[in-house]
Specification:
The complex is a heterodimer. Chain A starts with 9 loop residues before the first helix and ends in a 5-residue tail after the last helix. Chain A has helices at 10-22, 29-42, 47-58, 62-79, 90-97, 104-116, 128-136, 144-172, 180-187, 220-233, 253-256, 261-271, 281-296, 315-328, 349-354, 367-372, and strands at 175-178, 199-201, 208-214, 239-245, 249-251, 301-306, 331-336, 360-363. The relative contact order of chain A is 0.08. By secondary structure, chain A is α/β, with parallel strands linked by helices. In chain A, strands 5-4-3-6-7-8 form a 6-stranded mixed beta sheet. A two-stranded antiparallel ribbon of chain A has the order 1-2. Chain A folds into 3 domains: 10-116, no CATH class; 128-201, no CATH class; 208-376, Rossmann fold (3-Layer(aba) Sandwich). Residues 82-127 of chain A have low confidence and may be disordered. Chain A is built from 16 helices and 8 strands. By secondary structure, chain B is α/β, with parallel strands linked by helices. Chain B has 3 domains: 8-84 and 126-205, P-loop containing nucleotide triphosphate hydrolases (Rossmann fold); 89-123, no CATH class; 210-299. Chain B contains 17 helices and 9 strands. Chain B has helices spanning 8-11, 16-25, 32-44, 58-69, 84-87, 93-103, 110-117, 127-133, 151-163, 194-199, 210-220, 226-240, 250-262, 270-275, 277-280, 284-293, 295-299; strands at residues 48-52, 73-77, 89-91, 123-125, 140-144, 165-168, 172-175, 181-186, 201-205. In chain B, helix 11 crosses helix 12 (226-240) and helix 11 packs across helix 13. Residues 1-8 of chain B have low confidence and may be disordered. Classes of the chains: A alpha/beta, B alpha/beta. The A-B interface holds A 26, 28, 30-31, 34, 37-38, 41-43, 45, 48-49, 52-53, 55-57, 59-62, 64-66, 181, 184-185, 188-189, 191-192, 203, 238, 257, 259, 291 and B 15-16, 32-33, 36-37, 39-41, 43-44, 46, 48-49, 51, 80-81, 91, 93, 96-97, 100, 104, 110, 113-114, 117, 188-191, 194, 197-204, 285.
């Protein structure tokens, strides 16, 4: 059966939906139905028009949108047994062409099996005790072998934390004022006497979070996890803005507003200038205040600085900048990985200058300490 | 789902090409991909979610669709803290209070009084309710920047978009006579819920290529000189490659061309660009970046 046009029967569209699901689109029953409807009502169009119709029905984000046409080409080329399979899916195309078309249903299932078993699943198993051990491990001495496990656990725990935080809002909602409008409405059955009072609760104001992340040389081993932490918090706060600094300030909020964190981290390493250089907290803060302060600092902002306080700049400058920030935000939190060391005393000049303006001064050297932070947020 | 009522206007648009033509007549230059999405959303009465950067004509799609169908455009602009009172309906409390006072001396029973003050007369219709109550024909409901509203509102919207009915406790359930055409737009400042996305057709609007953008400029600014139009488009397209914080959209292209025309320029030179830089970049940092990249270089 050699056809240049895609076969538009319901069966092949359903097969295509399965194929698309196996290749990364989140296609459910609803989308499949939408695709069938779309194919029916688009009428007699060329191959491209057909692809556009299916794309409108089957995708739901920019990433899927960009992926779609490749999947489309791969599938129809393969199942139509044209001579040249698309470059993107040469392997699948080969297996497909070697079998009669009716078999492609089983092929679809094969594909699902392929992707439902991620490569690393067998290795990621870790017992409860291992998890506890890793949770207490200082980020800077995590052995290479445990790194993957730590990343996995951290993303899980952070996710759970952000869920807990969002549940807590609901309970905190309490009534505090009489709602006149609703009281009047309720008074009508009583002939206008306000017998049943209606209350107006304070609407929970979601806070903004601003994270100021030290990525200088001395903080290098911590910064990766702190970025992860920032990422997990995004869901809970109304808005999270993240900046990294060492000698220069770089905004990375956009980079973190993605679903795919590993990709984001990769993008980050390209974006962050001076990653692993020296530190000038005071000057970085000054630059931040100058460029973003007016826009981002408000009374419902929680400002988190993650740094070890090894500042090569002027302490007076640091103090001045912190003071001006403190006046404008709800809370100023300084997280210091060094606080995890038993012998550490906050005696560096920078830290001494900073302490008067900081509401919370807490450690951030391992997962446990990061999770502790929950109570301040 | 009940069979949707007849819509005569819709039948005029036979296929995707007819839709492209009608859109162009109304001054909206579109491509087949977008036309297909709009066409399907229209035919199948499914909401269409359009995502893309700012200034690429997302909102315009709904306006043009309404103009083409000769129907009403009802717009709901979303914002943080948008609530049911502003989006769906609210009772006119002041008027109700007055009515209660007026009724005080009458012989009506409490039930009658209550029925009276909770009648349509006292109902303030907000966009979503308006779209349900439309009398003559299906309106176009534009839910603009849905990503700005909170998740609770999104959940409410989900219910509305599947049943097209709104229940007002005091009046009962109001069902749509004519199911509206729904267009949602989002700037992707946050990820929308899967449930909502699953219910919609999806379209991602990207920056247009040179030819399309030039056509847009010609369509929207009929007086523009060909050479100037080309220069502006080329310049903006080059500026988009610069990794600016807010890359200029098509709106900015049009602004820039219009500004140059208003200044009586016949071509875009570096001085004109400097003068009209505010049309292209919307922040100090971006302007600096543009300048440091060399305006001359971007123009050539």
């Amino acid at each position: 059966m050699h056809r240049t046009e895609p076969d538009r029967s319901a069966t092949s569209i359903i097969e295509f939906c399965q194929f698309a699901r196996a290749h990364g689109l989140s296609v459910g029953i609803q989308q499949t139905l939408a695709a069938l409807e779309a194919a029916k009502s688009i009428g007699d169009v060329d191959r491209q028009g057909f692809a556009f119709a299916l794309r409108a029905a089957l995708t739901s984000s920019k990433e899927e949108w960009e992926l779609f046409l490749r999947i489309f080409e791969t599938f129809w080329n393969a199942s139509q047994q044209t001579t040249k399979p698309a470059s993107g899916g040469a392997r699948e195309a080969k297996t497909r062409t070697s079998q009669p078309k009716t078999e492609s249903e089983t092929l679809g299932i094969e594909c699902v099996d392929d992707t439902s078993l991620p490569a690393g699943e067998g290795q990621a198993v870790s017992g409860a005790s291992a998890q506890r051990r890793i949770q207490k491990m200082d980020f800077s001495n995590v052995p290479q072998d445990d790194l993957a496990a730590l990343e996995e656990i951290s993303s899980r725990l952070f996710r759970r934390m952000s869920l807990r935080l969002s549940r807590r809002i609901k309970i905190r909602e309490l009534a505090d004022r009489v709602d006149l409008r609703r009281t009047i409405r309720r008074s009508i059955p009583h002939g206008g006497d306000p017998i049943v009072l209606a209350f107006r609760g304070k609407k929970f104001q979601q806070h903004r979070l601003l994270i100021f992340l030290d990525v200088s040389g001395s903080m290098n081993s911590y910064s990766l996890f702190l970025v992860r932490f920032a990422y997990a918090l995004q869901k809970y706060f109304k808005r999270v803005d993240t900046f990294v600094f060492s000698t220069d300030v770089v905004e990375i909020s956009e980079v973190l507003r993605t679903r795919d964190l590993p990709k984001a981290l990769h993008g980050l390493s390209q974006k962050a200038a001076g990653w692993a250089g020296g530190t000038r907290i005071g000057e970085s803060l000054k630059e931040f205040n100058h460029r973003y302060g007016r826009k981002l600092l408000s009374r419902n902002t929680v400002f988190i600085i993650l740094s070890d306080g090894w500042d090569t700049g002027e302490p007076a400058m640091l103090a001045e900048q912190l003071r001006s920030i403190r006046h404008r935000v709800k809370e100023l939190i300084w997280l210091n990985p060094l606080l995890g060391l038993e012998e550490y005393e906050p005696v560096t000049r920078g830290i001494i200058a900073a302490l008067p303006y900081v509401d919370v001064f807490a450690p951030a050297h391992n997962l446990e300490s990061l999770l502790e932070l929950e109570k301040f947020l | 789902m009940p069979t949707p009522p007849k819509r005569p206007e819709e039948n005029q648009v036979k296929d995707v090409d007819a839709l492209i033509q009608s859109f162009e007549q109304l001054g909206y230059v579109t491509d087949r991909a977008l036309a297909t999405s709009v066409y399907l959303a229209m035919k199948l009465h499914k909401p269409l979610l359009i995502e893309g950067h700012a200034g690429l004509g997302k909102t315009e799609v709904a306006k043009v669709l309404a103009a083409m169908l000769g129907t009403r455009l009802i717009r709901l602009q979303c914002y943080e803290g948008l609530d049911v009172g502003a989006a769906v309906y609210e009772w006119n409390y002041q008027k109700q209070l007055l009515a209660i006072k007026i009724q005080e001396k009458t012989e009506q029973t409490v039930e009658e009084k209550e029925k009276h003050i909770f009648s349509k007369e006292f109902l303030l219709e907000r966009p979503l309710l308006q779209s349900i109550l439309a009398e003559e024909a299906s309106p176009v409901l534009l839910i603009d920047e849905i990503d700005r509203a909170d998740e609770a509102f999104e959940a409410f919207l989900l219910e509305l978009l599947s049943d097209f009915q709104i229940s007002v406790p005091e009046m009962g359930t109001l069902k749509a006579k004519h199911i509206p055409y729904v267009i949602l737009t989002s700037n992707r400042t946050r990820e929308l819920s899967d449930a909502l996305k699953r219910r919609c057709f999806y379209h991602w609007i990207d920056y247009p290529d040179f030819e399309k953008e030039l056509r847009i400029v010609r369509a929207r600014l009929p007086g523009v000189e060909e050479a100037l139009g080309r220069q502006v488009v080329r310049f903006v397209q080059a500026a988009r490659q610069l990794d600016l914080m807010k890359p200029p959209g098509v709106t900015e292209t049009l602004d820039c061309a219009l500004a140059a025309m208003s200044l009586g320029k016949h071509e875009l030179d570096s001085q004109t660009v400097e003068e009209t830089l505010g049309c292209i970049t919307k922040s100090m940092e971006d302007a600096a970046k543009l300048k440091s990249a060399g305006i001359e270089k971007l123009l050539s």
